[in-house]
Design brief:
The protein is built from twelve helices and nine strands. It has two domains: 196 residues, Alpha-Beta Complex (2-enoyl-CoA Hydratase, Chain A, domain 1), CATH 3.90.226.10; 58 residues. α6 packs across α7 and α10 runs antiparallel to α11. α1 links the parallel β2 and β3. By secondary structure, the chain is an alpha/beta fold.
């Protein structure tokens, strides 16, 4: 039986997903596509999971699409195989994932390995990470929503420069341009990602999911639409037991703080 191309671990509120084709630098093939969609679906449906960390096995995050598969698709001229490989169900499944997703980029992130983390809510990287939006190098174009996401994250001018030159970006430059929010020593990367996920997981979960949805909606819509969607989410959050419990806990903490001041 073939080893899964995506490993799942973690028993608490933080689920770890690891791209697992290290011998191919975690290059994307059909099996990884299906395994990642299934792993995200499982995490989304599991009420015990509050946040997900995504990383890569071995020395790379992902080298992008499997070049052997690209070559075979061209040689075979099999239209149905191309359609399956480029099925929009895959990026839509990642984009629709409703829980916080943290990309812990442990090494080279090239092509799809560059665009997949753009779908994440938070991106941190190792000092060994390297970023290459290298599509034009192999005669294809950016995918996985990156033509919308990359300009939104780093600005249109920088996005065009990275896409058209396909040059390598080192961690500190990625941090400076806002592509990642933190650069870690390699041995501290997963611990840092899990710590961020644990902080998020400690907050009331309905509010976290709706806060993510609001920000994504606001990034894609005008102010008037955003105002209406925001307040509808706010009202739904007010009706949750998690909201009430958090308010009561905060009130109790404030009373205890005031009591300390008077003693």
């Amino acid at each position: 039986m073939a080893e899964p191309t995506v490993l799942q671990s973690g028993t608490g509120p933080v689920r770890m997903l690891t791209l697992n084709r290290p011998q191919r630098l975690n290059a994307l093939n059909e099996a990884m596509k299906e395994d990642l969609m299934a792993a995200l679906a499982a995490a989304g449906e599991d009420d015990s999971v509050a946040a997900v960390v995504l990383t890569g096995a071995g020395r790379a995050f992902s080298a992008g699409g499997d070049l052997d598969r690209f070559a075979a698709l061209y040689q075979e001229q099999d239209f149905s195989a191309v359609e399956r490989f480029t099925d929009l169900a895959f990026p839509r499944a990642v984009a629709a994932f409703s829980k916080p997703l943290i990309a812990a980029i442990n090494g080279p992130a090239v092509g799809w390995g560059f665009t997949l983390p753009l779908m994440a809510d938070i991106r941190i990287c190792s000092q060994k990470a390297r970023f290459v939006c290298g599509f034009v190098r192999v005669g294809v174009t950016p995918e996985f929503g990156s033509s919308a996401l990359l300009p939104r994250i780093i600005g249109l001018g920088r996005a065009l420069e990275l896409v058209l030159t396909a040059r390598e970006v080192e961690p500190q430059e990625a941090l400076a341009m806002g592509l990642v929010s933190q650069v870690c020593p390699p041995e501290e990367l997963l611990e840092s990602a899990q710590r961020i996920a644990a902080v998020i997981a400690a907050h009331p979960r309905p509010a976290v999911k709706m806060a993510k949805a609001i920000l994504l909606h606001g990034a894609q819509n005008g102010l008037e639409d955003t105002l209406s969607y925001e307040i509808s989410c706010f009202k739904r959050a007010m009706a949750t037991k998690e909201h009430y419990q958090a308010v009561k806990a905060m009130q109790q903490a404030l009373r205890a703080k005031e009591a300390q001041k008077t003693t």
